[in-house]
Each structure stands twice: as C-alpha cells, then as structure tokens.
Write a structure and sequence with these properties.
The chain is an alpha+beta fold and 194 residues long. It is built from 4 helices and 9 strands; from the N terminus they run H-E-E-E-E-H-E-E-E-H-E-E-H. It is globular.
Length: 194
C-alpha cells in the first residue's frame, strides 16, 4: 500500500494528501459549539493512529467512546488548532513541540451541536502518555493498515455510508459516530493502493 511502503516518506505523503484534498467546510457558527481534535500518526514501524477511549463513568455522555484527543475551544485559545494542541496536552500529556502538525482535514458536526475541526499531525513519541483515568480509560494505537482494510472490505471506499452503518472495529472496541466520519474522510484522501 502506497502510504505504508516507507515510513520515512509517509509524512510527506500525508501532508500532500491533506493539502491537496477538499475537506468538509464549517457550518454556521451560531448553531454549533466549536471543538477540535488531533488525529496523531505514529510512524514507529507501520503507521498507526492514536485514539483515546473515554472513561466508563455512569452518566458521562461519551462513556466508553473511542475518539481522537480533543475538546472544546476555550476563550484563551487563539484558534481551533490552538484548541487541538492544548487539549492534546491536557488529555494525554503530549506537548505541542513534539507534534508536527500537517493541517486540518475539515469540520464534522455531532448530533449535540458540536462542530469538530479535525487536524492531523505526526507525533515524535518523546512524551510519556499520561491521562486522568476519571476521563480516559486508555489509549490505543490502531494500525493504519487495519483501518484501510476495513474501509475496503466493508465497502466504504468511494461511498458515503450512513452514519449508523459506519463503524471501524478494533480488538474489543468499535470506532463509530463522528470519529468514524473523520476516519472515513482521512482514508478517502490518503494515497493507498489495493
């Protein structure tokens, strides 16, 4: 697979895909609360993406959900990228200077009126992941080739699946909802060969 062939050239291929593609645009800002996430690639051997699993807390609206690190924009954030980098540090302890940001892959809306701007970057893995178990139960590195295979095998490639059908299972979890929409778009723009 093209994106998988050489980790040293992977960064440039991802950057080129991000900058060369059209991404979902922002909605009416009056209707949605601004949030941001960071899709982090780990290029230690075969490429993977870093996910968090939200904590199993009764009454927590995102209980057990798989997501990219991220959160709501604060008044002190100068822009949405600043939000993504701040939240990345707050949620999992990854410092902004250890992330090569490759760009935004667009806006994705949730049913509870959040507009998520998704960014992607490469993490150099010099930080030790550290999170609050009251908010996050664990982090997972999901191999990119696993996601690409599911994307093809389930017939998602080249289509726009219904949000209720769009899922990416991995081990004992399932990535669904808006996170699955972000993954779908990312896999559609990345250069991969069958």
């Amino acid at each position: 697979m093209d994106i998988m062939e050489n980790p040293s050239s992977c960064t440039e291929k991802i950057r080129s895909a991000v900058h060369g593609a059209q991404h979902p645009g922002p909605p009416d800002p009056a209707l949605y609360q601004p949030t941001s996430v960071m899709g982090l690639f780990i290029l230690n051997g075969a490429p993977s993406l870093l996910f968090i699993q939200k904590a199993d807390v009764p009454g927590y609206p995102w209980r057990n959900q798989m997501a990219f690190p991220g959160g709501h924009q604060d008044k002190g954030d100068s822009n949405r990228l600043e939000t993504a980098l701040r939240e990345l540090n707050e949620e999992v302890g990854i410092l902004r200077e250890n992330v090569e940001v490759l760009g935004s892959i667009g806006h994705y809306q949730t049913i509870n009126h959040r507009d998520i701007q998704a960014f992607v970057g490469i993490w150099n893995q010099t930080d030790t992941i550290d999170f609050d178990p009251g908010e996050i139960s664990r982090t997972l590195e999901v191999p990119l080739d696993h996601l690409i295979r599911l994307h093809r095998d389930r017939g998602y490639a080249g289509t726009t699946p219904d949000i209720m059908e769009l899922t990416y299972p991995f081990e004992d979890v399932v990535i669904w909802g808006v996170t699955a929409k972000i993954i779908h778009h990312l896999l559609e723009i990345l250069p991969t060969d069958p």
